Amino acid sequence: MAENAAPPPRQPADRPTRSTVRSLLRLRTYAHPIRWFLAGSVTAALLASGAVLLVPLVLGRIVDGPIAHHDLAGLWPLFTLLLVLGLAEAGLFGLRRLLIARPLARVEAAMRGDLYGKLQRLPVAFHDRWPSGQLLSRATSDMYTLRLFLAFPLVFLIVNSLMFLCGTALMLSLDWRLGLITLLPSIPLVLLCTHFEKGYSAASRTAQDQNGDLATVLEESVLGIRILKSFGRQRTMARHFRERADRLRATELRKTWMLADLWAVIVGLPELALGGALALGAVRVAHDELTAGTLVAFLSTALALRWPVESMGWLLAYSNEASTAADRFFDVMDTPEEPAPTERPAPRRRDGIRLTGVRFRYPDAPEDTPDLLRGVDLHIRSGETMALVGATGSGKTTLTTLLPRLYQATAGTITLDGQDIRLLELPELRSRLAVAFEDPILFSATVRENVLMGAPGAGEQALERALAVAQAGFVHQLPLGPDTEVGEQGLSLSGGQRQRLALARAVVGDPEFLVLDDPLSALDVHTEALVEAALREALADTTALVVAHRPSTVMLADRVAVLADGVVLAVGPHAELLESCPQYRELMSGAMEESVTR
Ligand SMILES: Nc1ncnc2c1ncn2[C@@H]1O[C@H](COP(=O)(O)OP(=O)(O)OP(=O)(O)O)[C@@H](O)[C@H]1O
């Protein structure tokens, strides 16, 4: 049986330590389609940097030529050349941006699309373990970080390194002694950068994870705003939010200090070396060992190299953040999905739903607790409606989630018309079996879109029939009828209206198998009776499992199954069970009292 447990969000201790480069190299699949644009962008930036490096040579020429020989006429061609170089630099840097902007937006969209698709395919157990804010920040801020990395740091790490090498070669060729002096800081700088990379990488990951935690708190408090307000808990939630925001702030400050230390050294050391080179150069010019023009060319080259050297600080910092974002992206993308079935299912035969020896425990259940389901045997005959009753927490909802394979049973088999559900492709399984849960989740779309989600492609007639079965005539009183937007999570509707739309969504496709988890709990007794009558008619040919808490819902069923202690204790018609099963009697009398007091 397939693993149904996805790994939890990785904590710093158990996260694989991958180098920045290796993490970033994993982006190549996404960068590959735009490789020519990237190459064009690097080429344009290289040519622009080449223009920058030519300027010092022209300056040297000006000093040793026209200026030394008081030749004003000779200045103009060189000035014109300087102007052309300046314009070329500006134009090429602009071209670089133009070349890469659109393709990178495509890469970002593709990565975001893949992440979204993956999140849809991953089992529910994965979503139980990953806080939604963590996933949200991966799909938003991490994607943005990666796009920016491909746009700037990636290009400039290449271009600036080459510019540094060419500039250094140029300086050594102009005067090797001065060149060596300016190169001296490279050794401590490389060591420092290596040290920085390790610390900054860890801090980046912490900050990005804390960002995800913050998004989770924010999301929960926005979604739960009614509860927070009615219990007056805004302050408590605000304190939680502030605490997390403070933690993130502390990490960001730590990162800033690290970067500031690196920056101070990256800027300071080359300045000292440049000062030394200037002093030695001046002495050599005074002793006629060097022309003034060569010294000007040398110093201008050294100044032109300030940007490539100084930018190393933020390029490294940004690359670290991007490598963390890439790790966070691939943490999700690497999570194994349910494997596709390797065998063909047995031929279909009219057999309804059959559960044999089904066991289940949640992946995060404490080790010392017994399995929630400990060998459930149940047969719902073809065309039969079976009610499932049991004490609260006995595992009724859990059992219903096993049928559409939202979770995988840990042992035993479940068959639909004789076909093992593990051998059915998920789309096929879910097109044959529809579900409606007690908590009716709607999406911010129109009523029509929400209902037809249960049967994409179904027409107006199917929509009207489903609305009629669910007694959802109220839809026609809405401002735009079925085309009315229901607002985020359908919150513009009442609980009972949402439940009826969820029920309509479950029955709209006229499914062969239907699983309803207490779908009428929010309805008043009168509406419940109407829905039940319509459902009984609609369910005539459907094999259905209905979780029931109230006797009125039980009445909908042909037979009733009692779930207790992880097994099905008894199965039979309502009246028979009332006679023969004390647990059922007890459950029903409790439920009766509840219905009367409701
Ligand atoms: N995602 C989950 N992860 C871990 N444990 C869970 C999860 N969902 C439910 N449980 C636990 O499984 C047990 C059974 O829950 P379930 O919702 O199936 O009960 P139920 O019989 O439907 O209850 P009720 O009648 O109150 O709706 C509970 O103890 C619950 O805490």
TrEMBL record:
<keyword id="KW-0472">Membrane</keyword>
<dbReference type="GO" id="GO:0005886">
    <property type="term" value="C:plasma membrane"/>
</dbReference>
<dbReference type="InterPro" id="IPR027417">
    <property type="entry name" value="P-loop_NTPase"/>
</dbReference>
<keyword id="KW-0813">Transport</keyword>
<keyword id="KW-1133">Transmembrane helix</keyword>
<dbReference type="GO" id="GO:0005524">
    <property type="term" value="F:ATP binding"/>
</dbReference>
<dbReference type="InterPro" id="IPR039421">
    <property type="entry name" value="Type_1_exporter"/>
</dbReference>
<keyword id="KW-0547">Nucleotide-binding</keyword>
<keyword id="KW-0812">Transmembrane</keyword>
<feature type="domain" description="ABC transporter">
    <location>
        <begin position="353"/>
        <end position="590"/>
    </location>
</feature>
<dbReference type="Pfam" id="PF00664">
    <property type="entry name" value="ABC_membrane"/>
</dbReference>
<dbReference type="GO" id="GO:0016887">
    <property type="term" value="F:ATP hydrolysis activity"/>
</dbReference>
<dbReference type="Pfam" id="PF00005">
    <property type="entry name" value="ABC_tran"/>
</dbReference>
<feature type="transmembrane region" description="Helical">
    <location>
        <begin position="36"/>
        <end position="63"/>
    </location>
</feature>
<feature type="domain" description="ABC transmembrane type-1">
    <location>
        <begin position="39"/>
        <end position="321"/>
    </location>
</feature>
<dbReference type="InterPro" id="IPR036640">
    <property type="entry name" value="ABC1_TM_sf"/>
</dbReference>
<feature type="transmembrane region" description="Helical">
    <location>
        <begin position="148"/>
        <end position="172"/>
    </location>
</feature>
<feature type="transmembrane region" description="Helical">
    <location>
        <begin position="75"/>
        <end position="95"/>
    </location>
</feature>
<dbReference type="GO" id="GO:0015421">
    <property type="term" value="F:ABC-type oligopeptide transporter activity"/>
</dbReference>
<dbReference type="InterPro" id="IPR003439">
    <property type="entry name" value="ABC_transporter-like_ATP-bd"/>
</dbReference>
<dbReference type="InterPro" id="IPR003593">
    <property type="entry name" value="AAA+_ATPase"/>
</dbReference>
<dbReference type="InterPro" id="IPR017871">
    <property type="entry name" value="ABC_transporter-like_CS"/>
</dbReference>
<keyword id="KW-0067">ATP-binding</keyword>
<keyword id="KW-1003">Cell membrane</keyword>
<dbReference type="InterPro" id="IPR011527">
    <property type="entry name" value="ABC1_TM_dom"/>
</dbReference>
<protein>
    <submittedName>
        <fullName>ABC transporter</fullName>
    </submittedName>
</protein>
